[in-house]
């Protein structure tokens, strides 16, 4: 996957999930559109939900933890695994938002 394609894919994930993730923690501030900024947002939401005593939020935090792993691996791994890593991250992001909501 080329660097531009990877950046475009991260941007698409950001566009799809950033607002929903930020809403979970009551954050309305704009975030950067870089892959690292998106991963930082996912980590922040993971940590906030994980600190909650609500079972569904803790479950969502576990999904976000998996998403962070896949996103980081996709960002740092060379080669053809990146599309599948990003697809797995997308699944965990979607599941986390659905579980927390």
């Amino acid at each position: 996957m080329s660097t531009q394609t990877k950046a475009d894919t991260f941007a698409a994930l950001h566009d799809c999930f950033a607002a929903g993730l930020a809403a979970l923690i009551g954050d309305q501030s704009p975030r950067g559109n870089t892959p690292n900024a998106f991963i930082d947002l996912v980590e922040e939401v993971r940590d906030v939900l994980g600190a909650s005593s609500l079972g569904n939020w803790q479950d969502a935090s576990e999904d976000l933890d998996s998403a962070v792993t896949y996103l980081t691996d996709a960002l740092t791994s060379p080669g053809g695994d990146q599309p599948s890593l990003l697809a797995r991250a997308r699944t965990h992001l979607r599941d986390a938002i659905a579980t927390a909501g």
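The mean pLDDT is 87. The radius of gyration is 13 Å.
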